[in-house]
User: Fold these one by one.
Assistant:
Number 1:
Amino acid sequence: MAAPPPACGSTPATSAPQHTCGRGTMFLWALFLVAMTATYLSVHSFVDTSSRYFAASWGGLHWERQIRASASPRRPPGSAEGAGLSVLVTGAAGFVGMHCLLALCKRGDGVVGIDNFNSYYNPSLKKARRALLGSHGVFVVEGNINDGRLLAKLFDVMPFTHVLHLAAQAGVRYATENPALYVHSNIAGLVSLLEACKGADPQPAVVWVSSSSIYGLNNRVPPRSRTTARLRLRLRLWPRLCPPRA
Ligand SMILES: NC(=O)c1ccc[n+]([C@@H]2O[C@H](COP(=O)([O-])OP(=O)(O)OC[C@H]3O[C@@H](n4cnc5c(N)ncnc54)[C@H](O)[C@@H]3O)[C@@H](O)[C@H]2O)c1
């Protein structure tokens, strides 16, 4: 009768089976490690993606209903002031944004705001402004104008007729301390918004106020259009950004 093969770990009869068994075990361990690493990576990326999905503060049927309710004009088409507009206001929780939203809302226009509630000015002040707007039926989305997916979704949910662009990193002196923030919100953010407007159907008219203060060292009030390059740019862009509407 043939002798049974030696079990791994038992004393081998010869050296050859020991090598075979050792290599086989190492191969199995290597395979096991590769499988574990692959599993870890795929689970990790799944958890990462889903946590980002669940952490998003926008989206869903209820959110879309809030957008439509807030953005639908309340002025009847036959009224003396003409049909109501549907306006997306960026920088809605800011000083100028909140007042513009209230004024448009009182005129009977439909409005939705967007703001990232950054901490340059006190965020609790911005939250209080959002609460005040909410009491007038105005919905403010917490989000960034650099978020192309969010902007596309907003235009998908509501065919805005106008965009009033006020979101910006404010403060002239702070720009020398943190220039990247200005590039992010005032330049990249503007481009992101214009790209979203370009892709929207129908395309909204865009009103861009300014990327920041324009006073400079100028003593002349009001400033002349030759005073600063930024003002010149603003005036040059104005007709292009606000094409006459039929
Ligand atoms: N208030 C003034 O005296 C004055 C003067 C000149 C120009 N401006 C310009 O008018 C506009 C509004 O001014 P304001 O006084 O209301 O400023 P503000 O700082 O009160 O409001 C701007 C809002 O934009 C938001 N914001 C910034 N970056 C954003 C981003 N990436 N995505 C979404 N939201 C973002 C901020 O959270 C803030 O609530 C700005 O463009 C500002 O530069 C204001």
Number 2:
Amino acid sequence: MTDSATNSLANQTTELQASGAASAQASGSGGAKPPVLFCDFDGTITLSDNIVAVMKHFSPPGYEAIMSDIVSFKKSLRQGVGEMFALFPSSMRQEITDFILRSAGIRAGFQELLDWCKNNGVAFFVTSGGIDFFVQPLLAPFGIPSDHIYCNGSDFSGERIEIVWPHPCDEICTNDCGMCKAAVIRRYPKEQFTRILIGDSITDFEGAKLVDLVFSRSHLTERCRELGLPHIPFENFHDIVHHLEQGDWRK
Ligand SMILES: [Mg+2]
Ligand SMILES: [Zn+2]
């Protein structure tokens, strides 16, 4: 067996142990804590990250330096995302929206997960670092109540696109998130809820540290491995329904 195959097996074992620990925790002792799901949008509900896709497609001069500063934590998400959209004139609103609506795909099983949550009385929140003008139209077919969708806002009244931040960090978070997933998660105390985060990347890093279980893809899987956070890698939402079905928290 090659070293990389051994490492891969070791990683799988860690993930299985983590998942076992999480479901044991979820079952609690005596009364089970109801799960609450916090689900990322870009690259999680959608197949790829729409902000990255917009920047790569239109390639406004200067975006690459800003994006690299975000990825290397030199710039906060709030500052970087604000600066990148300010590279566009507001008059491009329709063109950018059309591009996203045309190119974004929804990950398989999303409707199944929503149905499962409804049938099991489980609260489902979209916690997105994306922007309302594309998050809302892409989610419209799914009938998620608007107060269960957290994302950033936008203002096209000036010369350049301005991103606005209706859900800022609370007094505990110093990350300057823009849309603060940690602050949203903290409204559901761990003593009362089994908190589950679903995500893929940098906007999920802070929230992942708080929850009982992470369903992870991509960079978030690597991050969870590094930090030893309980996580289950997934490919699509059918996988997540499968794991939730196995959970014994409903007893
Ligand atoms: Mg994402
Ligand atoms: Zn924050």
